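Morning, I've got a small favour to ask if you have a moment. I've been staring at a protein lately and its backbone has me curious. You're getting the sequence in one-letter code plus the fold written as C-alpha cells. I've dropped the whole record in just underneath, so have a look:
=====
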Amino acid sequence: MGSKNKTTGSKIEKLIYEEKAPFSNIMRLLIILIFSILAVSIVIAFFGNYFGLKKEPFEGQWILILVVLILSFAMQSFFKMKFRISQLSVDAVMAPFSYSIPFSEIKKVSTTDIPWYIGWGLRIWGRRLAFVSMHKKAVKIEKEKGFFRALVLTTRDPDEFVMIVKERMK
C-alpha cells in the first residue's frame, strides 16, 4: 500500500493502493524459453557461417531484430502491469494502455475465476476488459454504462482489493 499522488490532467489524486500484477513461475519460464529461442535465432542469423550454417540474408536479419524489439516491448509492458485505487477511481495500467473506472460508475465489485482459455495480457472478453497476469481468482468490477461493462484484474489478493474498493464506494 502506498500513499503517493497521481496526476490526472490538472488535478492531483491521492493513491490509496497500488500493486504490480502477480506472475506465475510458468509464465516466467515461458518468457525465458521464448527469449532463449530468439537469442539462438539471432546468433545463427548473424554468425551462422562461423558454425558451418548458412547465414541469413541481410533483410532477414533486420526482420528478426524488429521481431525481438517488438516482443521485448510487449514483455516489458506485460511485466509492468499494475493496479491502483485512488481517491476517485480504480485504474489498471499495462503501458501503453490504461483503463479507469470512477467510483461513481461502479455497480458491483466481486471476485471471479479466470479460465485457462482467456490467455495473458490485456484481453477483451465479451463486454469485459481483462488485465490478466495469471489464471486464478480475480477482481471483477461491474458498471452500468459504457462499452465495457466489467473490468477484470488479477491482483495479488483479490479479497483485500475488493474490500478496499467497497470501502471507497461508501
Notes: Residues 5-21+81-169 form a domain with the PH-domain like fold (CATH 2.30.29). The radius of gyration is 20 Å. The mean pLDDT is 85. The longest strand covers residues 11-20.
